[in-house]
Amino acid sequence: MAFSAAELQKRHGLEGAPDPFPTLGNAPTPNNGDSSSSAPAVDSVDAFPSLGSSAAPAQSIAQPAASLWAKGPSSIKTSKSKATAPGGLGRSGAPTANSHPFSDTFSMPSADVATGKTLSDTLKKVQDQTGAIVESATQMATGLKTFYIKAADQKRLTYARRMIERGLSKPVTIEVEVPISTLGTIIGPKGSTLKGITDSTQCKIDIPRRDTLPAYEPKEKADEDDEDEDEDDEPQVNITVSGPSAACADAKAKILGLISHKVSQSSASIKNIPSSFYPFIAGPKGSKVRELEERYGDVKIHVPPPAVWKALEKQGEEDEGAVERDVSIKIKGDKENVKAVVALIQNQYKDLSEQMRELKISIPKRQHRFLVGSTADGILSQTQCIVELPSVEDASDVCVIRGPQAGLIPALTIVMDEANKVAVETVDVVALHRSGGSDALAHAKRIVRFFQRSQKLRQLASEGVKIFPPFASTISSSGNVVIDIVGEDKAAVAKAKEQVTQLVKSLPPSSVTTVEIDSLVHALLIGKKGAKIAQFESAQSVTTVFPAQAEESSEVVLVYTGSSTDKKATASALDAASAALQELARGAADMKTETLDVDKKWHRAIIGPGGTVLNALIGEDQAVLVKVGAKADDGSNANEDVVTVRGPSSEVDRVISQIKQIVEDAKNDDIINGFTAELSVDKKHVPHLVGQGGSTINKLRETLGVKVNFDDAEDKKGKKTVACKIVGRKEAVEEAKKRIIAQIEKLEDETTETITIKRAIQPALIGSSGKYAIRLEEKYGVKLSFPRESKDGTAPSNPDEVVIRGGKKGVAAVKAELLEAAAFETESRQSLTFTIPTRAVAQVVGKGGQVINGIKDESGAQIDIDKNGEGGKTTITCRGDKKAIAAAKAAILAVSDSVGEETSAEISVPQKYHRSLIGQGGQKLRDLIVSCGGPEETFRQSGLITFPRQGNEDMDTVKLRGEKGLVAKIKAELEKQVKQLKETKIEGVVVPKDQHASKIGRGGMALQSLQRESGATIHFPGSRQYGSVGEIENDLPAETDAADIVKVIGTKEAIAKAKESLETFVQRAPRENTGRGTPDQASRSLSIPKKYYHALADQQNLLRQIRSAGGYLTIPQPAPPKPSHKPSATANSAAKSARIDADGDEGAQPEEGNWEVRENHTEGAEGDETIDWVVRGKEEDLDKAVAVLQAALDGAKAATHVGLLTGLPRSAFPRIIGTKGATISRLRSDTGADIQVGKDDDLITITGDESSVNQAKDAILAIVQRPSGGQRY
């Protein structure tokens, strides 16, 4: 039986060697009926070369070689063959689905993935180093490139993915912002941590130098002088990371992982936005804030509601000495998200500031309450406007509508509708009691306080009707006490008014009285949860109304709630209740007032940050009242040094003692750290003394431990100065003062000078990334400012002016150097323009720009080539100094002159010789051009020789175009080679099969050497081209075994020389018995039907698997005839001949091929006749070995059907097979069917159960019908 090349190599120990039989083409192969069905090595570049066929089988070819002149570029190269990567198998061999069980899929943005040679080289490197199978596809809709990887183990899979991400990601530079205090953690001991990150990611990481870092002094916790409740505002430092995008992201993640405890969470306050903009930022009912929180996830945003910020602003206006309260917007959460939210809110504020307009309108005060709450949210939601109402204390009724211009009128309409859509009735309490003869206003105020205490008005209110008592501030400003009743139902409002009027009339002045009781005793009289006062009210038939604690009023109102209507009885009851309440007050506490004289500068220590110390002194029960400073004296002459404490005696004594101790401690601390020095500083020097972001002054504070503050002050001469105050230990203060004075003297020496330098040469003076300018700044201690474009791209007003700022000597030195360099650059910036023939441009540029770049490097000139040549001429511009321009021009003209005048010629070459002349991958054609004195570069060889395309009328005419002498030499050489091809013959030489291995040699070395020495081409039985090279022309004995016939192709002399060597046989010594499978071992027979013989015998791994199980298998001989699977009808399987310059067939219909499914194992041995297969081995291993054979038999039985697919173009076979067999292996794994692709014809054989056979066929057709995206050679 005949063997394939792969089987021959395996039998003779030549696995992994390059194919010794160069491909000839794809002519139909005669079917001998006994071709092996073993699967080819799908990853072998030799087993699946670029496919294509001519119209007729190639005949009489001296140097056969496969053509790569196909429609698309082939990734298969047979000129150099390497052993297949181990692929995790531990040996050379083709990767299979079983050997690569681990897989992974990931995607990268197509724009960030390198292409071209970088892509192919990276994937090849991955496959060589890891043995992984890598496939990729680009999704145009999503803009992603997806990679599919299969590897032998998880480690190789992970490494392959990392290599792809690192190798294909385009280089980027990113910045990572980190707190300055974390730099030590990132760098690590002696840089070990940083080195570990750079080694693992292969990124370049730049950390700013220490002398460029801002000074930073962390705030101490619980510092009594620190009244800022915000987090420590630590400076941020940018770390630069450069490298592939995926590696940069990995490095950033590692850096942030090291300092996650410091940067994972952050908070920020926005203080520059006026509170009037808060409703716009928060949105109706906080909707915009919630949207931001949902959008950024782990972020909490707090925008103070109007009630809060208005109250705090009012408090600040009334009491300038009060501790300032923070009403800023607060954001807390993930650091990056916090920064994003802050930036978004700031942009929103900027836009609002530009669009904001306002409209004022007068609306009665009583209707203002209808424009708040849900109504205000509705107005904001519909019109993007807000309505600002005057405070209740303000007598004004003017309302302000604020928002975008387009929303003001709609907002005004809604405001008027809402203000007027409800009915309003009022009850004037003062008027109802004015006839009583007493102070009606005072009585009315007491009644309102009673209503609020007893919630009488709320009880009268019904559904749809609301009753509002007047605000205390409104009563004070207007002198009226008016109760408002509002609602949409006028009848219900009128009814409620009547009920309120009756309620007010039921409380005449005789039923109400007041008692003066110290406000500090009120809490003692009320008792816990009001228990004591409730008991008193029940016993006395009265209701007690205490003033609010914030009023510090001593007036307590008693309202008679008994059943008697007699005025005298009511008065008597109230007198008794007043006396009883006063008696309770006297027994409740022993009150006293103490006053301390404490210097004003110690008041801060008594109050503490945010009033914390004062709150601790007063205690949770707030039984004492402490007034500090001017508040402590109620007289007109306020004494700012007075501290007043009032309350129960014991509590007052305690507080007085603690205040004295606090003051004493503050004085002691001031003696140690309170030394103060002051000096006046010119205001223009302050920014330099403070530094960017306070870096300079913070460094001084950190180094010497002092406090340095600058305050604006106007001296007597009217000159603007700044008072600098330094506080701390005496020695440190004096040193700080000395350093500041020295810095001021240095600044006094500073000067500024402007020089004129043309903008065109400024980039050369600045240098790449500013390196030249930075070098000058560091050398002379100056600051250079070159003109820049604005953010919107507008050019600077003075583009030629360069500003130098610094010490006088440094400025003068930098000026001299810049002017000298500018003069040199001006001299060096010459230009010259000339033309060359357009046909010479390709040679001047060179492959990948090699020639033109070499000229640039050697001459030092800059060269620009005009892409739009006209009239056969192309313009070239050279820039640089005169010498460089002259050298560049001479070099370019030298290359241009070497390109002679073109000519063209034609030569007739029979089509059957085209493949042989072109050679594998066009190599023979390239070698021919070089041998004739032509260029070696492939791009320069293009177009010199053009073979006819498939479908041309004249298929024998070859066109030549190029320099006249070269064309003549190529034509002569082609005619010579055609003559040699016509003299080529094919003869058969009988070489016993056992001599084939010695003639081929390890790795095909002996065969290749013989072919070189003889000049003939030799094909052994089983090679891919053996059947396609044609029939032998000499006669051989009839009894000669076909497996012994070796075909030799060449001239008579070459064939004779090769035959002489082939007919020299080498006798091998017989092998000694190794004891393998000796009779003393146990054996077991397994009867197997003959029809499964070849299904088992052709399994290449069966013997190895049985040996691995500890047994040995003897394949029974002789073998029964092997069934042959031939399609019943032969379709037109000849693939279209593909050429280098052939365009794809436009409008071609999808290939369907011819498909036939038949039952398997129905040919060959008839019936159920069996044959014994013997397995030998040790007793303990025999069962396992027999089980392996039985499993193989079961697999053969399961393959019940065989499918024959023909008629597909062979140009599609490489796509079916895939790179190194990846596609066909995946098809086998996915469908469970065995797929064999014909080597010499278009037959694809699929074996398995009926379902898997049809599934595999559909998958193959889907691949064939998919358009190919390759480019022509």
From TrEMBL:
Q: Where is this region: Disordered?
A: 1-59, 72-110, 207-241, 1066-1086, 1112-1168
Give the stretches traversing the membrane: none
Positions with biased composition (Low complexity): 34-59, 74-85
Q: What is this protein called?
A: K Homology domain-containing protein
Biased amino acid composition, Polar residues: 95-108
Superkingdom assignment: Eukaryota
InterPro entries, sorted: KH_dom, KH_dom_type_1, KH_dom_type_1_sf, SCP160-like_KH
In terms of PROSITE patterns, this protein maps to: KH_TYPE_1
Q: Where is the composition biased (Basic and acidic residues)?
A: 207-222, 1155-1164
UniProt keywords (A-Z) are:
Coiled coil, Repeat, RNA-binding
Any one Gene Ontology molecular-function term assigned to this protein's record:
RNA binding
Which residue intervals are annotated with compositional bias (Acidic residues) in the record?
223-235
The record's section on Pfam families has: KH_1, KH_11
Task: Please give the coiled-coil regions recorded for this protein.
Answer: 335-362
Say yes or no: keyword tRNA-binding present. Answer: no
Per the database record, which ranges form the K Homology domain?
A: 170-260, 266-350, 355-420, 509-582, 590-664, 673-745, 749-823, 828-897, 901-979, 983-1067, 1200-1265
